[in-house]
């Protein structure tokens, strides 16, 4: 039984379906919706040809110019990547989160979410993105290995053992290459290429943020919202209010 909800906004209604394959995100979103947590909040961050973001409780009745985007419950949700089955196509519902430097596990915000609009890409642009994804994969694996060897690295630094540090770095680089080879080179599926070249989306967010649902009806409303005028902090100059989020 599909979990469907209606997001009633001042611009019109958006019907979303939550994925059963991301149960932690599904159950959390449902719980907040039933509590009325989203009622009266804003789509506080809107970027044309990119996405519309909401779910910040601090945005309720927020005066003009108030900085928004850091509010939420006092918990995060473990990442639930179901990739490449679910990706950042136009209409994807995804969880916002803090950056990798403070959040290496890519855990999601307790309440903030965004709906993808994005744009279409040429095949050559997607190829270039695959190359960037491979570099990103290497960097992430290397960073993880570095964290695991933190004590050893600190001891070598304290002892000013440059040779030892160089040897360890070479070893970690070699391990990174082996791990990346085992994981396989990041590449887009045929379905992703089809969607990203013809429909649109934000492929550079794939495997970085949890996609936990999609818009079933009301993409025209998402389009209207992403086209609205915004201030320098990407907040719509005329508030776009989420009046209610209710289970269908």
Automatic annotation (TrEMBL):
Biological process terms in GO annotation: protein folding
UniProt xrefs under SUPFAM superfamilies: Cyclophilin-like
InterPro entries: Cyclophilin-like_dom_sf, Cyclophilin-type_PPIase_CS, Cyclophilin-type_PPIase_dom, Cyclophilin_A-like
EC number(s) on file: 5.2.1.8
Keyword entries, A-Z: Isomerase, Rotamase
Keyword Protein transport: no
Catalytic activity reported: [protein]-peptidylproline (omega=180) = [protein]-peptidylproline (omega=0)
Keyword Amino-acid biosynthesis: no
Ranges of residues in domain PPIase cyclophilin-type: 12-247
Gene Ontology molecular functions: peptidyl-prolyl cis-trans isomerase activity
Pfam families noted in UniProt: Pro_isomerase
Function: PPIases accelerate the folding of proteins. It catalyzes the cis-trans isomerization of proline imidic peptide bonds in oligopeptides.
Family: Belongs to the cyclophilin-type PPIase family.
Protein name: Peptidyl-prolyl cis-trans isomerase
Source organism of this protein record: Prevotella melaninogenica DNF00666
